[in-house]
Request: fold
Amino acid sequence: MFEQLSARLEKVLKFVRGEGTITEKNMAEALRMIRLALLEADVNYKVVKELIEKIQSKALDQKVMDSLTPAQQVIKILRDELTAVLGQEAKPLRFSGQPPSIFMMVGLQGSGKTTSCGKLAKWCLTLQKNPLLVSFDLKRPAAQDQLQMIAGQLGLPFYEMSREKMASPQKALKDLITHTRNRGYDPLIVDTAGRLHIDEDLMTELRLVKDALQPSEIIYVGDAMTGQDAVRSAQAFEEKIGLTSVILTKLDGDARGGAALSIVTVTGKPITFVGTGEKYDKLEVFHPDRMASRILGMGDILSLIEKAEQEADGKEAEEIARKLSQEEFTLEDFRKQLRQIRKMGSFSQILKHLPSGGMFKNLAGVDMDDRKILHFEAMIGSMTPREREDPRIIDGRRRLRIAKGSGRPVFEVNQLLKQFLEMKRMMKKSQFKKIISSIPRSR
Ligand SMILES: Nc1nc2c(ncn2[C@@H]2O[C@H](COP(=O)(O)OP(=O)(O)O)[C@@H](O)[C@H]2O)c(=O)[nH]1
Ligand SMILES: [Mg+2]
Reply:
């Protein structure tokens, strides 16, 4: 679980933060904790071993960077290493120079292949592409019904593989390419058979599709929630079929952070996208550095900003994010933030992106449902601009006025102010994000 990994690493960081210098002893203890945290998060033990060795040798090399405290150094090294393992930079999907590009999806049943076909097609639309969806499963021709339904929902073209066509698979696939080319579709997104277990039959079928279509991308779709199982099957698909990239699904759930690290290490193939929900817009470009930060518990502020930007004015979102990481955050900003949160959807989704132990933890404690957000907004709305700038001036009389004006009880006004001050206090304490953002990347 990301949260577990984050929580454990946070403990580690607290530990190293408190010490003035790196000594062999506290370093050993920090590494032991990092190792446990990673293992518990389902990171492959070989990956853990390599990471620990790298961190150890780099951390004890005192010349890492003079301007950093030892704690910052360990954090920086760990973050850099995680990022390096995850692939350093976001990798885009490769479109073929000569259309049509062909994306072939492989993976076990239930991993999210069919759903990801829909998501990917939807994403292609944003690139002004003209995707065509098709499903190829010799054993279960009915499997294509699901994709056909998705295509229908998204208003996208779907190519039907009838039983008659599939009687001669090679010809069916050749006709498919001709059809795609003649109609000018690009890319062709191919859903393939998935079984609960990998067997030779499945691999033979997938090889047939691969040989006939010569895909520009063979995309392994892995369910992050299945942890090491996803890692093992990724390895099998890589060995038997050969992969070019990975989509990791269900990162919205109880997903283990280790799966991402491990799949990349074991297959050597980049993660291009992550699935963060059942809906077709829940596909996010994978950013290794952000994932590393998220694993480290710093919260994925950048992803959050991106999400906010889709809904709100980009400048405003940027400004709020900047203020969030500094101290000038006022009740007015808080109100804007609440408004955006309301637009963005479920609050628990947002919480996942914020630093664990960060300012929103306490808000979560008061069960921030949409109604609560509206009430908070109403109360802030009843404040004068000066009160919003400096809530310290809000005395008993002002509280009563605000309560009356917003139609909320006084205790809720008190609660709002308490939450807000607590948030600011947490932000002041949360030097971590600042440390990280101020660290120049050494690579
Ligand atoms: N929460 C969540 N559910 C997903 C995601 N991707 C797929 N699913 C769900 O996982 C289940 C299996 O997905 P499906 O696409 O049918 O898997 P397939 O057997 O590999 O084609 C479905 O209920 C999907 O709605 C995701 O990113 N997040
Ligand atoms: Mg399917």
About this structure: The first strand starts at residue 102 and ends at 106. The pocket of guanosine-5'-diphosphate (ligand 1) is lined by residues 107, 109-115, 194, 249-250, 252-253, 275-278, 282 (CB under 6 Å). The first helix runs from residue 2 to 17.
